[in-house]
Manganese containing catalase (Dielma fastidiosa), 72 residues
Amino acid sequence: MWRYEKRLQYPVEIKHTDPKLAKMIISQLGGPDGELGASLRYLNQRYAMPYPNVAALLTDIGTEEYAHGWWK
């Protein structure tokens, strides 16, 4: 269903590191309001959804959020 190609859209050259910015980015991806949390909420809500087409939509959104995760 999903095919993930590990390549960047634009070339990136890191000249120096920024630990403060890295901490903020990690919190957005893996924190309580991050991508993983959003994915799990969507996927959990789909099981209580009485309408099959909306449950399917929640599944699609949840798996897409999961694909944004920090584990890449």
About this structure: The radius of gyration is 16 Å. Residues 30-67 form one domain. The mean pLDDT is 82. The first helix runs from residue 19 to 30.
